[in-house]
Amino acid sequence: MRKIHTSGGALLLAYLSACVPVQQAATSPDYHKTRTGAGIGAGVGAVVGLLTRGDKFQNALIGAAIGGVAGGAIGNYQDRQEAALRAKMAGTGVEVVRKDDNITLDMPGGVTFASNSADLNASFYPVLDKVSGTLVQYDQTMVEVAGHTDSVGSVEYNQALSQRRAQSVAAYLTSRGVRSARLIVVGDGENHPVASNDTPEGRAQNRRVELTIVPVAKQG
């Protein structure tokens, strides 16, 4: 088990030394570019993936106090979690994308929220129940909940809407047993489109919430 020290500096060092793979993922420029991956139901889908990095991510790791997975077992741990998520998300409209040891769930706004609203569609509750159940089972991870929008409307409005939508998803996951300390909530507005905003189909793809699941490495 990881030892947690009370001193701020020692605590930070313990987490930074334990979570090198996570930091590498959080700071890699690959996670700030649109990428494609195998999805469920709709076939191939695009996601942005992890946005949070630097001090914010490191501080979240400290607050989460996760024991972590032995370094050599992380790949297998995420393989099993990915398989569980793919089985549970089949036919739901949610795409599961794997990039290295990170798993991203792409949740389209059209099935997650009412139009121009941050209120979750009640019909989506069973899907989020399945997601939260898996996250509770595989609890040695951090989860970034990132809201994204299309470019219709002002930048300020879209930023606020994306934040509210991400918060709604995070609140629901917390209500189903996912520890809030594991969640990093990000509103990204219209900054990272995965399709053209010039067509209705492209805008629909850009209105989404992405959950990126990042494994935490155990110290030693």
* Average pLDDT taken over every residue: 79
How many individual β-strands?
Answer: 7
Q: What value does the Rg take, in angstroms?
A: 17 Å
CATH superfamily: OmpA-like domain
Helix vs. strand class? alpha+beta
Short description:
The protein has eight helices and seven strands.
What does the model show?
- The structure is a single chain.
- The protein has one domain (8-215): 2-Layer Sandwich (60s Ribosomal Protein L30, Chain: A), CATH 3.30.1330.
- A five-stranded mixed β-sheet has the order 3-4-7-5-6, with helices on both faces. A two-stranded antiparallel ribbon has the order 1-2.
- It has helices at residues 8-18, 20-27, 55-64, 74-89, 109-112, 125-137, 155-175, 200-206, and strands at 35-38, 44-47, 95-99, 102-108, 141-148, 183-187, 208-215.
- Mean pLDDT is 79; it is low at 1-44.
- The radius of gyration is 17 Å and the shape is globular.
- It has 220 residues and is an alpha+beta fold.
- It contains eight helices and seven strands.
- Helix 7 links the parallel strand 5 (141-148) and strand 6.
- The longest helix has 21 residues, at 155-175.
What is the element layout, followed by pairings?
Blueprint: H1 8-18, H2 20-27, E1 35-38, E2 44-47, H3 55-64, H4 74-89, E3 95-99, E4 102-108, H5 109-112, H6 125-137, E5 141-148, H7 155-175, E6 183-187, H8 200-206, E7 208-215
Parallel strand pairs: 5-6
Antiparallel strand pairs: 1-2, 3-4, 4-7, 5-7
List keywords for this structure.
220 residues, two-stranded antiparallel sheet, 7 strands, single chain, 5-stranded mixed beta sheet, 8 helices, disordered N terminus, globular, 41% helix
